[in-house]
Amino acid sequence: MKTSEKTAVTTLGEFRLVNRLAKTVELKQPSTIKGIGDDAAVIRYEKAATVVSAELFLEGVHFDLTYTPLKHLGYKLVTAGISDIYAMNATPRQILLSIGLSKRFFVEDLDELYAGVKIACEHYGLELAGGDTTTSLTGLTLHITAIGEAPEEKIVYRSGGKPTDLLCLTGDLGAAYMGLQLLEREKRVFEGNPHKQPHLEGYDYILQRHLKPEARKDVMEALAQHHILPTAMIDVSDGLASDALHLCRQSNSGVRIYLERLPISSETFRMADEIHIDAVTAALHGGDDYELLFTVPVTLHDLLRKELPHVDIIGHLCDASEGAYLLTPDSQAIELVAQGWRS
Ligand code: ADP
Ligand code: MG
Predict the structure, then answer these.
(1) pTM here?
(2) What is the atom index within ligand 1 of the atom nearest the CA of 25?
């Protein structure tokens, strides 16, 4: 759609704009007593603790609208918000979404953004229960509050890991970072020559991992189904190295991670080769993976292997005095250091 055909936000005003967004929301959660429309949402969970988390996305820092479709951005914002709730072993139920908009944005742009939010809400069984809308002088600012519930005794903290516990990881690492590198490369080519078409074919997986990541609802549910309660858990959003360090420090433990066990997709390797980056570096420090990193007692090894074969056991916790190291196949020990790229 051409900009001249779009509707300025000021022609609707905040009230009508919010009304328009609210119309797309269906209230289905029994725990949402009041959603959009009053001064505050009202939520009631029966016999459960409330788990709340926030995530801030700034244009130019966390996303680039030259290659990020607004619909994907809406979806990714929800993924980022609720990934933290799953990482507590809790179930997200409601989100609050706040936006700061500069004059560059039109009503139709918001429709796109909220279409992505809606798809994510349906996919994860969430409800948009409110938010705030304001003008901003520069760019687009997005903030999400995710709210969920869990029986208090089932909440998993970063701090519960014990030396000898197995360190487990869902999915694979570094792909979102490689997707970002690909998009940045094609953006530079385009800026140099606007007639050149971007070369994105054959890289569906890494692009999807950057543009439309998923939160690991499935793994959280599978763990519950097989009565596996992790001792500690964190979501990997700032790179494995940094997030593994958070987990083991809060668990007052050291850690050993085996390099050859790091799950890395073939597309990640291919892209890393093309741009002369070490794929393992991307896996350790890339960020935006939204996978779950958790520990279980070593006695659950066989059960985990049998019932959750897609979860990788990448290492184990050890005594804090033994430090945090990555072990290579030729028995070198590389100290883990945090250098996530995301601020
Ligand atoms: P207040 O002036 O009390 O902040 P608003 O007029 O900002 O109230 O909001 C009215 C209702 O619309 C509230 O229920 C609020 O949660 C909701 N709302 C405002 N902006 C958004 C948004 N961007 N997305 C979803 N709900 C929103
Ligand atoms: Mg308001």
Answers:
(1) 0.95
(2) 25
